[in-house]
Amino acid sequence: MTAERFRFGLIIFIFLHMTWLLRYWIDSYRTSKKPLLQTNFIDEASVRHKINFLTTDNFGLLNKHAVSITNVVNLAGGIPIQHFLDGYLHCYSVNEDVYKAEMQYNLGTHPQSGLELYGQVKRTIDFKRMQIINDEVQLQKKGTGFATNLFLNQVNEARQRGFLKIVTHAAGGEDYPNDYWDGYKVWAKYGYQMGAVHQNKYTGWRYIRKQKSETLNKLYWGREDYKLWEDEGFSWDGSFDLTKKSDSIMYLKWYLAAKGINVPLNPIGNP
C-alpha cells in the first residue's frame, strides 16, 4: 500500500512539474516573439538630415569630458527613429560641466485617434555630479511607449558612462488640479523613489488611509490599493539610482518583465 501511494505521489509530482515546464516554455516563446522595444539611439544616416540640430559649446564641455553631441542626446533619451518625421534639437553648455538638451519630435499621425503626435523633452546633464535632471517630458498622446523608450535609452547610456542617478519632479495629482500631468502615478513603476521630504509626506498619507506599503514603489507592486493613489496622490521629487543592484534597477527589471519588454540594461562602466 505504501509503495502504491509512493508511485501515485510520484506520478502526480511529475505531472505537475511537466505542466509547469510546459507553461514556462509557452510563456518564454510568447515573450521571444514580442518585438524589441524600438530603441531611440541616434542613427546618423537616417535621422540627422531630418532634424534641425542647434548645438553650442562655449565652455569646452565636450572636450573636457570626452563626449560627443551624440552621447549628450542619448543621455537625454535619444530620438525615436522608428516613427520620427521631423523635429529640432537644441543643446548648449551652461558651464564646463553642465549641458542642457531640449528636443521636440513630430511622430506623425496616431492610427487610432488620427491625432498628430508630438513629444518634447528637456534635460540638464551634469558631468561633474554625474547626474541627469529630467526637467520635463510632454506627450500629446499617452500609451505610445514614447516615454518608456526615452527612459530605457537614457538609463542605458547613463549607466554605460558611469552616471549615478537621474532626478525628476513627478508632477500631477492634487497639486495640479485639472492638469494632464501624470508623473506622480507613473514614475514609481519605473523605479524612481521619493526623496526624504516627500517620503515623509507619503508616510502621513498612507497612515491616514490605512495603507501598509511603506513606499510608493511597494504600493504599486503590492497592488494594495494603487487606484487610491491615482485618485488622491500628490506630486513628488524623486531619483532613480543607476548603481548596481539598486532598488531602482530592481523595480525597473520587474516592470520590463511584467510588460514583456525584451531590452537588456547596460552594465555600469565607462565606454
Explain briefly what this protein structure is:
The chain has 271 residues and is α+β, with helices and mostly antiparallel strands. The chain has helices at 2-33, 44-47, 61-64, 69-75, 146-160, 183-190, 196-208, 216-222, 226-232, 247-259, and strands at 51-56, 86-93, 98-109, 116-126, 131-139, 165-170, 193-194, 236-241.
Your description of this structure?
- The structure is a single chain.
- This protein has helices at 2-33, 44-47, 61-64, 69-75, 146-160, 183-190, 196-208, 216-222, 226-232, 247-259, and strands at 51-56, 86-93, 98-109, 116-126, 131-139, 165-170, 193-194, 236-241.
- The protein has 271 residues and is of the alpha+beta class.
- The chain has one domain (32-259).
- The chain has an 8-stranded mixed beta sheet.
- The longest helix has 32 residues, at 2-33.
- The N and C termini lie far apart (66 Å).
How are the SSEs placed, and which strands pair?
Layout lengths: L1 H32 L10 H4 L3 E6 L4 H4 L4 H7 L10 E8 L4 E12 L6 E11 L4 E9 L6 H15 L4 E6 L12 H8 L2 E2 L1 H13 L7 H7 L3 H7 L3 E6 L5 H13 L12
Parallel strand pairs: 1-2, 5-6
Antiparallel strand pairs: 2-3, 3-4, 4-5, 6-8, 7-8
Strand order of the largest sheet: 1-2-3-4-5-6-8-7
* Whole-number mean pLDDT: 80
Total beta-strand segments = 8
Give the overall shape, derived from the CA principal axes.
globular
Rg over alpha carbons: 22 Å
Distance between the termini: 66 Å
The SSE order reads: HHEHHEEEEHEHEHHHEH
- Approximately how much helix is present in the residues? 40-55%
Estimated structural class: alpha+beta
User: What characterizes the major β-sheet?
Assistant: 8 strands, mixed
Low-confidence stretches: 23-41
Strand content: 15-25%
Task: Tell me the count of domains.
Answer: 1
Number of helices: 10
